[in-house]
Amino acid sequence: MTSSILRPSEIIRPAIEISQPLGNFFAFSLRADLLGLITYSQPAEAIARMDSEEDHKGGYSIFGTQRGEDKKRLDEIASFIRTTEATFPNSIILAANYDKDGRYIENDEKRWKVERASNGICWLNIPTGERSASIIDGQHRLHAFDKLPSGAKEREMELLCVVFLELPVPYHAYVFATINFNQKKVDRSLAYDLFGFDVDERPSELWSPETLAVYLKPLLNY
User: Fold this and answer.
1) Strand (E) positions, 158-203?
2) From CA 5, how far away is CA 17, in angstroms rounded?
């Protein structure tokens, strides 16, 4: 594909739009060093809910979609990056246009946008002012590049990426858990908690039986 177009406030990359039942996403490539500047990862954590006269829920909410980083694994991947056999053919999966607090980004200058050309190719306009894309899967692969010396040529390695635009935050966890159930062992309790991430945002009458179960488990524990 054509190399990146770099402007003071944005990166422009050619992309391919792919349509699947959950929604459309875009496949593209970007240098690891640039990708590291515009993305963030959000480790999953339990946050206590405060009791109040208006809301007597108490208990805990699960926030974030990622497991904590494994420093040993980061070092191992960084060593692999320095070899002549280094390759990462599987994609880094991103979700754009939500900030670290899970809020939708309204400011048009800070949002990822897509322009569709007549030949079927799309162009992604990626803002560089702040980190506006969450890493759904691939944080260890990307963050391992930070272990390399600042001037290392390997930091400019092109990485395959896919990005969802406007994908609601609860589905970030859904995509992460679905991928990792199929590829490697993930603590099922954590994954189920992630599936129920939106219990505070969605009316209870719209919950699935699985979401209700996730909601009841910590309350019974508590």
Assistant:
1) 158-165
2) 19
**pLDDT, tens digit, 9 for 90 and up, residues 123-157:** 999 998 889 999 998 899 999 999 999 889 999 99
The one-character DSSP state at 109 is G
- Pull the structure tokens for residue 140: 């260890």
CA torsion sign for 136, 138, 143, 145 is negative
d(CA 203, CA 52): 19
Domain positions in the chain are 5-185
Cα–Cα distance measured from residue 32 to residue 173, given in angstroms and rounded to the nearest whole number: 23
pTM: 0.69
- How far is the C-alpha of 215 from the C-alpha of 160, rounded, in Å? 36
Q: Are 102 and 40 in contact (CB under 8 A)?
A: no
